[in-house]
Amino acid sequence: MSPKLPSSAHIREVGPRDGFQNEPEVISTADKIRLINQLGQTGLDRIEVASFVRPDVIPQLSDAVEVLGGIDVPEHVSLTVLVPNSRGLDNALQVRERFHEVALFVSASETHNKRNVNRFIDESMADNEILVKRIDAEDLKPTAVIATAFGCPFEGKVPMERTLELAEQFAAAGCREIGFGDTTGMAHPAYVFDIFSAAIERLPGVEITAHFHNTRGQGLANAYAALQAGCTSFESSFGELGGCPVPAGSTGNIATEDLINMFHEMGVQTGVSLPAVIDAARAAQAVLGRKLTSHCIVAGPVDWTPDPDGPACH
Ligand code: ZN
């Protein structure tokens, strides 16, 4: 008997932030706006579009205000921005009317947090608690991301309880959505099932979001395990955009088109048009001027029709 799966799942497209941030090419503001607008026409209803980190740290995302100002997506599309600290939130609020959700973050591992934002976890969380109140006061939705939720390249495995405690802290502060990020691809499906089952049970009313990287080829298997645990909220990146600097040369996020293809094949609806996302990924490919390697860009979706005169598989 096949396992009982949810009938539908939500996907937040994170390519324009998490993806672009890790691409070596400089992507023009106009191209970013064009690609985001195209994503907005695919049926996706959540897109992470910008980050308000310091421009000298991530120059690729230094045009956040211009990008937000230029986006034109349907009303049902909720736009998310990532904010590292109060100065980032100040800058984002200059264009307050252009987005709907603010993502805050912390790493579950002390070393990763220190390297990422040069603060201890407790300092980050104290600041995050203040930021949640400010975001709420602006009538925006505060969301949280726990990076290295499954493991850290510097410290190794992160205890499950550590990640769950941070999630509870975010929930107590007022975050209604909390993402578990597998920053360097250290999760495996059995662990994913256990931690998502525990998080969903311990945090009723909080949306638990799965953010997997395909660093070691387990991204989709992990998504399936999270789905089996009852998770219905996922993040992914069109075109599999966004490598990861750790380990050097690694692939990053799972591809949105691969995730949608798997979900739709299993009868899990997303409301997103798979061909339209593949078109958007191909448009990104044209912007970058090189081939992207998500499975569905290379092979097409399952219902793809092969050339009758082409070679046959063995
Ligand atoms: Zn990611």
What does this structure look like?
The chain has 314 residues and is of the alpha/beta class. The protein is 40% helix and 16% strand. The protein contains 12 helices and 12 strands. The two termini are 30 Å apart. Bound molecules: zinc ion. The site of zinc ion has 5 residues, from loops. Zinc ion binds next to loops.
If strands are numbered along the chain, what order do they take across the biggest sheet? Answer: 1-2-3-4-5-8-9-10
What series of H and E elements makes up the topology? EHHEHEHEHHEEEHEHEHEEEHHH
Total number of helical segments?
12
How far apart, in Å, are the first and last alpha carbons? 30 Å
Task: Itemize the secondary structure elements and their pairings.
Blueprint: E1 10-13, H1 15-21, H2 29-39, E2 46-51, H3 64-70, E3 78-82, H4 86-93, E4 101-107, H5 110-117, H6 121-137, E5 141-147, E6 151-152, E7 156-157, H7 160-173, E8 177-181, H8 189-202, E9 207-211, H9 219-228, E10 233-236, E11 243-244, E12 250-251, H10 256-265, H11 274-288, H12 295-299
Parallel strand pairs: 1-2, 1-10, 2-3, 3-4, 4-5, 5-8, 8-9, 9-10
Antiparallel strand pairs: 6-7, 11-12
Key terms:
eight-stranded parallel beta barrel, about 325 residues, alpha/beta, binds zinc ion
Short description:
With 314 residues, the protein is of the alpha/beta class.
